[in-house]
């Protein structure tokens, strides 16, 4: 059997698969984040470990876990976990959605960080957190023996091996994405040493076997795995050059697999190493389903999404524009101070038209990311789409019309944990490649095609959208 571990922000989920990759069981454990000050977000890494052990115990009550041949991880990215010389956690982990590092990002972005790492500094990344720690908690900073990312903490507890992978390391901002090793200029700026950092592996590498007494065989191989977005891409089969996936979750993600390093990007989109040995570009719209939830539930006080969305894809395309910057915006404008806007209002617009404008605004924001990818020479014709928004045929049709992409839904919602299972099976030789595993285990469901006339109209609307932006 094979085990996929999905370490999220609110829960950890373990998926168990048989020798054919068919899912046979799962377990879930939840934990909470702490918000000690406004815009702060922290978590106790011990809670992740305890959640993992709880899930293993649950699965062990129903299955013979000694038959697990290998396991791997999909992990929340960017979180700062620090251990002292006794391998004890020094302070709570500072998470990906923590926003305390605005000043540190401003300092870093005055330096050639794109040249050193391939990306600009953003508050979610790990490097600004280290700078903040150095300034505000110097005593804790001086005690650091090991610096880890969330999933790597679990792997370390499980195996005793201090390791990370290229996809997760890419989100630290002290890893040179193009060259594939820690960036010495960034380490010098941060005041950390390479021996405080884990050894870098490809995501499919077996780093060791289980040595912790958690109910697994000590012969169980541990595959290091990757960051959640890269592993989610494997879980959707987005593994070939130029393939695209779109996630319509609370935030929206445009993920583009690339065989070669996207040197034309210049920091506008995230440029990371991928879990399949290649690279990827990633554009993020911070308020995707978050915008529709705000509009439907908070403003309108409704919960009947289906009835409110019904027919919106066929409504005329008008001049009403919504900028979905309710929490600032990430790609490609990367402006934490960007604000949401309804523009072009008149008295004829009611709930349906404004609802469509919110959905359109999210789609136009994703189109902004796609057009940036086009400028890097990536011209996709279709994409696989996942997330809560993918359950709405109306939303998918609007997205297809806006982007001009044919959108494919898939028959699984497991994402990162399934990606971890595919990595585990590949590492053990069950598949000759990650691509083969995806082809066997992941299947498409429905396809939404763009209406060319509407796509042309949205091209014009996008130009108006951009003029409001700037």
List the helices and strands and how they pair.
Blueprint: E1 2-7, E2 11-17, E3 23-30, E4 42-43, H1 45-60, E5 70-75, E6 81-83, E7 93-94, H2 102-108, H3 113-117, H4 126-136, H5 138-142, E8 146-148, H6 150-159, E9 163-165, H7 166-169, E10 175-176, E11 181-182, H8 184-190, E12 199-201, E13 206-209, E14 221-227, H9 228-236, E15 244-248, E16 252-258, E17 270-273, E18 279-285, H10 289-299, H11 305-309, E19 321-323, E20 341-343, H12 351-375, E21 382-386, H13 393-403, E22 406-410, H14 416-427, H15 434-441, E23 444-448, H16 452-469
Parallel strand pairs: 1-5, 5-14, 9-12, 15-21, 21-22
Antiparallel strand pairs: 1-2, 2-3, 4-7, 6-8, 10-11, 13-14, 15-16, 16-18, 17-18, 19-20, 22-23
Task: Tell me the strand order in the biggest sheet.
Answer: 17-18-16-15-21-22-23
CATH C-level name of the domain at 2-229: Alpha Beta
| CATH topological fold name of the domain at 2-229 | Nucleotidyltransferase, domain 5
Distance N to C terminus: 53 Å
The secondary-structure class comes to alpha+beta
CATH superfamily of the domain at 2-229: ATPase, nucleotide binding domain
What is the helical fraction, as a range of percent?
Answer: 25-40%
In what range is the share of β-strand residues? 15-25%
Q: Main beta sheet: strand number and arrangement? A: 7 strands, mixed
The number of distinct helices, counting runs of at least 4 residues, comes to 16
Rounded to an integer in angstroms, the radius of gyration calculated over CA atoms is 22 Å
Mean pLDDT: 95
Number of beta-strand segments: 23
The second-level CATH architecture of the domain at 2-229 is 2-Layer Sandwich
């Amino acid at each position: 059997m094979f085990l996929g571990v999905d370490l999220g922000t609110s829960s950890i989920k373990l998926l168990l698969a048989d020798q054919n990759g068919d899912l046979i069981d799962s377990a879930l454990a939840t934990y909470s984040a702490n918000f000690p000050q406004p815009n702060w977000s922290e978590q106790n890494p011990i809670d992740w470990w305890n959640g993992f052990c709880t899930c293993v115990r649950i699965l062990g009550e129903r299955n013979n876990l000694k038959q697990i041949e290998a396991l791997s991880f999909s992990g929340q990215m960017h979180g700062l976990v620090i251990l002292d010389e006794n391998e004890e956690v020094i302070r709570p982990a500072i998470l990906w959605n923590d926003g305390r590092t605005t000043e540190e990002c401003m300092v870093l972005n005055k330096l050639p960080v794109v040249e050193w790492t391939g990306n600009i500094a953003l508050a979610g990344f790990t490097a600004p957190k280290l700078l903040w720690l150095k300034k505000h908690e110097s005593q804790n900073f001086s005690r650091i023996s090991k610096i880890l990312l969330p999933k790597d903490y679990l792997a370390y507890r499980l195996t005793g091996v201090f390791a990370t992978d290229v996809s997760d390391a890419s989100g630290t901002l002290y890893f040179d994405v193009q060259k594939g090793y820690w960036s010495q200029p960034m380490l010098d700026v941060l005041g950390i040493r390479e021996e405080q950092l884990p050894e870098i592996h490809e995501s499919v590498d077996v780093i060791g076997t289980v040595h912790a007494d958690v109910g697994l065989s000590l012969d169980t191989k541990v595959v290091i795995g990757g960051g959640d977005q890269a592993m989610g891409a494997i879980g959707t089969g987005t593994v070939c050059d130029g393939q695209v996936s779109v996630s319509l979750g609370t935030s929206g993600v445009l993920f583009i697999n690339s065989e070669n390093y996207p040197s034309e990007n210049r920091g506008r989109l995230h440029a990371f190493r991928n879990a399949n040995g290649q690279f990827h570009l990633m554009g993020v719209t911070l308020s995707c389903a978050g915008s529709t939830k705000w509009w439907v539930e908070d403003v309108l006080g409704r919960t009947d999404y289906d009835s409110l969305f019904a027919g919106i894809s066929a409504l005329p395309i008008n001049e009403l524009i919504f900028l979905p910057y309710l929490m600032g915006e990430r790609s490609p404008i990367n402006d934490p101070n960007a604000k949401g806007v309804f523009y072009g209002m008149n008295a004829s617009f009611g709930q349906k038209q404004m609802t469509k404008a919110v959905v359109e605004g999210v789609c136009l924001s994703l189109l902004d990311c796609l057009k940036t990818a086009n400028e890097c020479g990536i011209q996709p014709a279709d994409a696989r789409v996942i997330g809560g928004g993918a359950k709405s045929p109306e939303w998918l049709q609007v997205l297809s019309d806006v982007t001009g992409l044919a959108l494919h839904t898939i028959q699984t919602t497991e994402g990162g944990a399934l990606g971890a299972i595919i990595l585990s099976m590949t590492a053990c030789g069950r598949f000759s490649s990650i691509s083969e595993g995806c082809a066997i285990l992941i299947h498409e469901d429905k396809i939404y095609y763009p209406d060319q006339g509407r796509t042309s109209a949205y091209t014009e609307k996008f130009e108006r959208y951009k003029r409001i932006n700037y």
